[in-house]
C-alpha cells in the first residue's frame, strides 16, 4: 500500500511513473508507445503496475535493450530525482557502487520521499547527486 504524502504532494509511485514516461519520451513518442506496448504484451507488465514490479520491469528492459537498459534506468533516476529534489532525496554514484541497483535506488528514494513528506522538513542530501549521475554518461 502506498502511503499518501501530506499537503497535496504526489505519492511516490505517481512520481516514478512520470519519471518513466519522461525517460521513455526522450527516445521519441513512437518509441515510448512501443516500449509500453512491449512491456504489457510480451512481459505482462501494465504501466500502472511498474512501481510494484520493479524487478520484472528491470529484467524486461534488459531483454528489450540489453546493456542499454542501464542508460534508460539512469534517465529514470535523473528524472525522478529532479521531481523530488525539494524533499531532499538521496542517491549514490550508481556507476561506481554496483550494489546500488535500480531497485535499491528506488527503494531508498521512496523511503526518503515518504519520510520527508511525513516530517515536512525534508531529508538532507548526502552527496551532490547531479554530479554523480552525470558521471554515468
Using brief descriptors, characterize the structure shown:
about 140 residues; mainly alpha; Non-ribosomal Peptide Synthetase Peptidyl Carrier Protein, Chain A; 6 helices; about 60% helix; disordered N terminus
At CATH level 3, the topology is: Non-ribosomal Peptide Synthetase Peptidyl Carrier Protein, Chain A
Question: What is the CATH C-level name?
Answer: Mainly Alpha
Which stretches are poorly predicted, pLDDT < 50 over at least 5 residues?
Answer: 1-7, 122-135
**SS element count, helices:** 6
Strand content: under 5%
Helix/strand/pairing category: mainly alpha
| Count of DSSP strands | 0
Task: Tell me the overall shape.
Answer: globular
**Biggest β-sheet strands, sense, barrel:** none
H/E order of the elements?
A: HHHHHH
Please, could you describe this protein's structure?
There is one protein chain. The protein is an all-alpha fold. It has one domain (12-134): Non-ribosomal Peptide Synthetase Peptidyl Carrier Protein, Chain A, CATH 1.10.1200. Helix content is 58%, strand content 0%. It contains 6 helices and no strands. It has helices spanning 12-25, 29-41, 54-65, 69-84, 102-119, 129-134. The chain is globular, with a radius of gyration of 15 Å. The protein starts with 11 loop residues before the first helix and ends with a helix. 26% of the residues are buried. The model is unreliable at 1-7 and 122-135 (pLDDT under 50).
